[in-house]
Amino acid sequence: MKRRERLTQQERHAQILALVRREGTVRIATLADLFAVTTETARRDLDDLAEVGALNRTYGGGASHSLTAEPDVGERGRAYAAERARIGAAAAALVEAGDALMIDCGSTTTLFAHALAARGLALTVVTNCLLVARALGSSQQCRLMLCPGEYVMHEGGVYGADTLEFIRRFRANKAVIGASGVTTDGVMDADSAGCAVKRAMIERAERTLLLADASKYDVAQFERVCALSDIDDLVSDARPKKGLAAALKRARTRVVVARES
User: Fold this and answer.
1) Regarding beta strands 150-152 and 205-211, do their DSSP bridges make them parallel or antiparallel, or are they unpaired?
2) For the residues 198-221, what does the mean pLDDT come to?
3) Which domains does the chain have, with CATH numbers?
4) Is the predicted pLDDT of residue 20 greater than 60, yes or no?
5) Which of 7, 65, 119, 201 lies in the 20 to 30 Å Cα band around 33?
């Protein structure tokens, strides 16, 4: 990989993940030389990525993580908090009064729910996420329908056959989902139960919004949720590059970039 200078932290993280996926492991000294940064900066980058479960920290470097393991929603919520808050606000601006929404579990979808509640729109919302329900429960204009199902504490939501059956009883104007990765092969996630909920919401909605910060670009996970063509709007904090950008264009997926205020 050619050395690049003056990369942002998020750009370095994306390149580190790409390198780890290709090579399996990476060394701190290699990253310091590659990005022309200090070893302390390279070490902090690896620590940050390990904290959110993107890789496993090893002595002197990092290694690829399990495709089926993911940190809990609280840990994920601490990563790229400012970027994801902007994404949530930008996505909330796409919602219209009177919309029927389906919102799945996730740290970014929870931030979206907080931004949406602040708008005070008349809405009907179906969700499997307790954190989303709590956020929107503060809005007197919102009719809130919480799915039944088996509660999974580390996700803060409910899953299973009862959840899917409930979702399929309704139609929605928009489904709002998150994901662990976005690749040219499609939208990816680590948990099969979560993937099933996302697919059910997509099937029952006229339009689907995917909320994903740029650290999710080109990150492969255990299971594919759907093709890129099933996503109408990707709301992120930065535009994807090269291959992924071309794949999204072919899929006719609109990329909405949440700008800093």
Assistant:
1) unpaired
2) 93
3) 9-64 (1.10.10.10), 74-257 (3.40.50.1360)
4) yes
5) 65
pLDDT of residue 70: 58
> 3-class DSSP state for residue 100?
strand
Question: How far is C-alpha 200 from the chain's CA centre?
Answer: 17
Contacts of 59 (CB under 8 A, 6+ apart): none
Separation CA 162–CA 179 (nearest Å) = 22
Q: Which residue has the higher pLDDT, 37 or 70?
A: 37
| Closest to 128 (Cα-Cα) out of 101, 113, 149, 153 | 149
Alpha-carbon distance of 124 to 133, in angstroms, equals: 12
SS (H, E, C) 162-224: HHHHHHCCCCEEEEEEECCEEECCEEEECCHHHHHHHHHHHHCEEEEEEECCHHHECCCCCEE
Report the distance separating Cα 108 and Cα 204, nearest Å. 21
Distance CA(1)–CA(48), nearest Å, equals 22
Q: Is the pLDDT of residue 194 over 90?
A: yes
For 245, half-sphere exposure in the C-beta direction (CA atoms, 13 angstrom radius) is 8
